[in-house]
Amino acid sequence: MLQQRAALASQEKEAALKRLREAEYSSFFSSRHTLCQHLDSCIANSISSFCQRFLLANGVRVGIGVLLRAFKLAKNKSFRSLLNLKLLVSEKDLIVREEACRIGLLFGGFTGCYHGIRCILRRLRKKETILNEFFAGCIAGLSILTLDDQSKRRTLALYILARLAQCIYNLAKARKKFHFWGSHWQHGDSLLFSLACAQVMYAFVMRPETLPESYLEFIVRTGPISRPVLKAVRESCRGEPVDVDALSAFLSSNSNAKLELATNCRLIPCTGIHAGRSSCMEQTSFAARSAFKKTFPLYMSLTFVPFVVLNLQKFMQAPMHTFLTALRGAVRSTSFISLFVGIYQGFICLHRKIAVKDHKLIYWFAGAIAALAVLLEKKSRRSELALYVLPRAAGSRNSLSLSLCTDSDSGKTHSNVMCIISGASKPARKHPHKLIQYFA
């Protein structure tokens, strides 16, 4: 009799637990947990978060593409075509549908998964802790897989890592645990940006393969120096024979300039850097003006479109004020880029006026000095720019290390100390494949 009662009680307990689990499961779709602060059900909150962020991100990307297309049509002075929707937004000329969808899935998927997983963890753990947010963020971060380009995923991951380091450092500094020397400086963010740009511009000239192809293409398109000229500069810096015929053919086809140069030259002169313009001041001015014209449409789109999409109500209340604010910000950012390009070009020309031999580190210092143009930007924007460039500099970290460890002029290696500083355990001459594999 006692055994039957115990078995019956056990069955009733299991049935009660089953009904409780079913109720909790159904409440996820029909109601919210007591710890949840959203008003609707958990599943509805997750879906609405996904849809909202997807539409916003998708709209921003499409809007930027349309505005850039409008600038391109206006540049060709075909103003009537701006009213032709077929020329303005056709799939043939405006291919942003797939990219916009992927960006929307990235932001929408992250937000929707994050809120949904937090609700699930609240129900399973019966409490709200930091661990819930941590695990929800880790799982939601897998939405980065919606990007099909591995270089974009890597760049985004490095950017988020830089943001994480910034948050940890700010927390430690606020609690007076530790802080870096010089962190209280007024222009510490400008110094960080300068160091990051120095590494990026060095890699741009000497090790372009260490930069993402899209980022490298942006620098080449913005600057006045083309890839064949950069290739000749790398060959002269490394002591390799310069392909004079290819360089001369390229210069003559673009500027009808003739270049007389020896294959074993140690410095590409200004006539090879900016053929067609004998004056370095003229070339510097041209580089700055050209960079302004090329980047203004991009910065105007990046400034105007996100504000309109994300703050539509404010834009409808004061459209002219919004437009003028975006225009002022775009002009300021574009002026910074054009000044950066002009200073970099002027520094390279100045070096060729006073030196007879090129050196790799000249391009590192040129990038560091040109980056001081960031002082034109607002104070709040400087740290943003530093964190944007820092992942690129970290991704190209092997460029400076490999160049310092290996001396191409003599075929020998430098001291073991430099290789140890750069992260290599042995000289590059003995194990070059291991060194490259280590930095990769």
Automatic annotation (TrEMBL):
Record lineage: Eukaryota, Viridiplantae, Streptophyta, Embryophyta, Tracheophyta
Protein species of origin: Ceratopteris richardii
Residues in coiled coil: none
Domain Transmembrane protein 135 N-terminal residue range list: 274-391
Record's protein name: Transmembrane protein 135 N-terminal domain-containing protein
Transmembrane regions: 296-315, 361-377
Keywords recorded for this protein, A-Z: Membrane, Transmembrane, Transmembrane helix
Claim: Nuclease is one of the keywords in the record: no
Taxonomy, superkingdom: Eukaryota
PANTHER family the UniProt entry points to: GB|AAD46013.1, TRANSMEMBRANE PROTEIN 135-RELATED
